[in-house]
Amino acid sequence: MGSKRRLLLVSNSTLHGSGYLDHCEAQIKSFLGSQVKTVLFVPYALNDRDGYAKTARTKYESMGYKLDSIHEQPDPVAAVKAAEAMFIGGGNTFRLLKALYDNKIVSEIKKRVFEDGMPYIGSSAGTNVSTISISTTNDMPIVQPPTFEAIGLVPFNINPHFLDPDPNSTHQGETRETRIKQYHEEDDTPPVLGLREGGILHVEGDKATLRGTTNARLFLRGKEPTEHEQGTDFSFLLDTKNYQLDIKL
Fold this sequence. Notes:
By secondary structure, the protein is of the alpha/beta class. It has helices spanning 25-32, 49-62, 76-82, 93-102, 106-116, 125-128, 176-183; strands spanning 6-10, 38-42, 66-69, 86-88, 120-123, 157-159, 192-195, 199-204, 207-212, 216-219, 226-228. It contains seven helices and eleven strands.
């Protein structure tokens, strides 16, 4: 029997020229369907959790779903256990991961996704923490989580907001691609999927497909990066045997 895992991993919450989650609204509604009535929101990536919950609630209600924010619940673990679906929003990935561990919900989220098939939607930082680690986030380490190991819903890393270098720029700092290649200079580092803004990785069980409006760039240790169009089947990334890493989900 295959995995029950269901993930919608979005690069960014807001796309230039549109409102909050507008660019992925159709994919969210299709992903959640009519069976889900209430979504559990995790606003830990931002300091203003009340304001963040208000923004997310307004959007999800416009799509026909009730939204409960985990920070308003008396018991975060119980809230995860009871959730029909989960949405973890963007912000600072280090702050988010620390709060997930502080509230003791990392293992419970993983259990609900793998054992119960709870739909998981992540955006930006929420996508980062769904992966094997937060080592390829773009964020500053403003707080220190107990580990860089994340929830581990997929056995590779994602770099949301992946940005191509501007050939006309005079900026002398490292490009995003350079930084990912530096990551792969370390031993036993998994693939990194560079999701440009507008990109979405949709995972159903053991099948992963690139959705959205932009191409993605895939980085494999020891190999040159490759470009991939919408509709690309990335299912091979879900099996670590395909890139010889000893990672267990």
